[in-house]
């Protein structure tokens, strides 16, 4: 009974926040007001609180632009966590646009939807990413291309970093800054989260959302460590595979450090 009341109260708070922020956000999107970049961060902070997700940040976001954040990906929660920290936009596969709830949120956040199967649209999509970065927006890429179990970093696809090159022409320095980010779900109810409990936070693509969300709400207290690593500068002379390898090594190092209880190392 108490648990149901707790969930109901937090759900009501999120509903009120949504009813208050959504009309302003829709107007901001229509008229391109700068506040359209900040509103999603406010909403995601409330959503993280509602879901019991406590975010701890290690390191700082690179201040230089153009900037791309490259993060490991284990759950839809990663989006809420990163969006609660900074004003970011995401690169997402086209299918996400039509997902219930999350697709709508992704559209409101002006995510860049990529149709990987249509090669003829690749140039158009890459140019959009480049324009967004050149305009000062922080673009988030999940270079694994799918979700993991949260215990490791999957193979990083170097081809996905090609989108960063589109921002070269608009960069005064002639480079794009790619910052590795490690997202580690490390605690539950104040105790370390081991492999047994990590499925509560991880969401493989074939898992049903409803039961997963129910388990998360029941857990009620998830701790996540987000570590911003050292930036890799990507220039026209850089080797894309070497850049991807350096970024992957940094993400893997910080992810493993956090899972071992030493975040920020």
N- and C-termini, Cα separation: 42 Å
Helical percentage: 25-40%
Low-confidence stretches: none
Number of domains: 1
Number of helices: 7
Count of individual beta strands: 9
- Average pLDDT number: 86
Structural class given helices, strands, pairing?
alpha/beta
Strand fraction: 15-25%
N-to-C order of helices and strands: HHEEHEHEHEEEHEEH
What form results from the Cα inertia axes? globular
Largest sheet: 9 strands, mixed
Estimated radius of gyration: 18 Å
Structure overview:
It is globular, with a radius of gyration of 18 Å. With 265 residues, the chain is an alpha/beta fold. 39% of the residues lie in helices and 19% in strands. It contains seven helices and nine strands, in the order ααββαβαβαβββαββα. β3, α4 and β4 (112-114) form a beta-alpha-beta unit. The protein has helices at 2-31, 39-51, 77-85, 102-108, 122-134, 209-219, 240-259; strands spanning 53-58, 67-71, 88-93, 112-114, 138-141, 175-188, 191-192, 222-228, 232-235. The longest helix is centred in the N-terminal third of the chain and has 30 residues, at 2-31. The chain has one domain.
Which characteristics define this entry?
265 residues; alpha/beta; 9-stranded mixed sheet
List the helices and strands and how they pair.
Elements (H helix, E strand, L loop, with lengths): L1 H30 L7 H13 L1 E6 L8 E5 L5 H9 L2 E6 L8 H7 L3 E3 L7 H13 L3 E4 L33 E14 L2 E2 L16 H11 L2 E7 L3 E4 L4 H20 L6
Parallel strand pairs: 1-8, 2-5, 2-6, 3-4, 3-5
Antiparallel strand pairs: 6-7, 6-8, 6-9
